[in-house]
Specification:
Blueprint lengths: L4 E2 L20 H14 L4 E3 L9 E5 L11 H8 L2 E23 L2 E19 L5 E7 H14 L10 H15 L9 E2 L8
Parallel strand pairs: 1-7
Antiparallel strand pairs: 2-3, 3-4, 4-5, 5-6
């Protein structure tokens, strides 16, 4: 099942998410649906809040970066097979220099901006079989995880922009929240409040 992507302005994107257990209803089906939704939306990551669920869950598939000629051969090989499920993730540490990368978000279509993030992280999480992992990840893969992790913390990439950049994109964000944007995937826009 392909879910509509929740658009910027919906409160679910700002809610605190809750941990889940292995008995979460239809978890395997949900994971399959999240990957299907992500692929249908041309994404490389998708967090549960982006489909309206306030739970600590996100999925990533970095394989589109395997063709990026700006990356080393080693990193391209690594990204080719970097398809993962992160349940109840917790970033334990972020290290290295901050570096800029042009980010976008399925919930914020047609907005791309440079965001600065640290180059490496240590993350603890459970996979789709509820096996616990602690991984050290760097580069583009770390960047994708940091972006999706922000979603389960109620943070959007636009929150990490300078005040000037935020002012420059304010009208675009308002248009997205009103549904005044063209996308080639399903979206759900916040319902406008009726005037009294």
């Amino acid at each position: 099942m392909i879910y509509p992507i929740i658009a910027y302005g919906d409160p679910v994107l700002r809610k605190e998410t809750e941990e889940i257990t292995s008995s979460y209803p239809k978890l395997q089906e949900l994971l399959e649906d999240m990957f299907e939704t992500m692929y249908a939306s041309y994404g490389i990551g998708l967090a549960a809040p982006q489909i309206g669920l306030s739970i600590r869950l996100f999925v990533v598939d970095a394989s589109p970066f395997e063709d990026d000629e700006d990356l080393s051969e080693e990193e391209r090989r690594f990204l080719k097979d970097f398809k993962k499920v992160f349940i109840n993730a917790k970033i334990l540490n972020e290290t290295g220099n901050e570096w800029a990368f042009n980010e976008g978000c399925l919930s914020i279509p047609d907005v791309r901006e440079d965001v600065f993030r640290k180059e490496s992280l240590v993350i603890e999480y459970w996979d789709e079989n509820f096996q616990k992992h602690t991984d050290t990840i760097s580069g583009i893969a770390a960047r994708i995880i940091q972006h999706e992790y922000d979603h389960i913390e109620g943070i959007l990439f636009t929150d990490r922009l300078t005040p000037l950049k935020k002012r420059l994109i304010k009208s675009k964000l308002n248009n997205i929240s009103k549904g005044n944007v063209k996308v080639d995937y399903r979206m759900k826009f916040p319902i406008a409040k009726k005037k009294r």
